[in-house]
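Entry 14. Two folds queued back to back today. First construct below, sequence then structure tokens.
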Amino acid sequence: MRMKAGSRWRSVACETEVVVVRAADADVELQCGGHAMAPAAGSPQPATRAPVPGLTGGSRLGKRYVDREHGLEVLCTRSGVGSLASSGVPLDIKDARPLPSSD
């Protein structure tokens, strides 16, 4: 599915919610806990499916996750127990850029 920057997504397997910071270059399926995420439009709904065993590494509030291959970047706005993935490939936590030295 083609996502737009600024769109909000929620997990159907846990409490995780994300905002797309940078849209992917291609069609990808954003997943959490092994299940496709749903648009977060409207009121929040409780999780309806259990996370797939082995995909419960969790998502961390305030961290950016990236799929370097497709250019997807999301910001976690609500943490949960499910692991984030893009079309089955786990997303990496984006490293902070080092600050310039003051010398």
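Second construct, same run, same settings:
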Amino acid sequence: MSLESDINSFVESVDMQLYDISTVNEFDEIIYRISVISNEFEDSKRKPVSLDKCAELSRLISPLLDVTPPVSGDYRMEVGSPGIERKLNKLKHYNLSIGERVSLLLNDKTKIRGILTKVENSKIFVDVDGKETLVDFGEILKAKIYFEW
């Protein structure tokens, strides 16, 4: 099994979903970042991930990374939520965000904002003011969830 699938098993064991894994370099420090989202919904919205759940997951994953380091050299593991206005980089991210508000910037610089209604293969469906808009995943330059305050 791969390191990602092992981490995913731990994430599922605490009733969460693995959103993304990334390695970033911030202020001359390498961070192995594990982003998770809740499986629970309240009022048709995904519940936030608690700090206690992140700490629990961190304690579970840490021994695995001691045996199978994700990068060579020193690094810091960080377990957390991808955030309220998280980026959508993979089709998996879109599937996990159905029902949420999305902001898309297309390759031709067109901007689309609406509710993500479904994903079929590489087709992204967005409800823009009651009208369904279809976008091919390959046409998207940047995308994120947005929150209306």
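Quick look at the second one. The domain at 91-145 is CATH 2.30.30.100 (SH3 type barrels.). The chain is about 20% helix and 45% strand.
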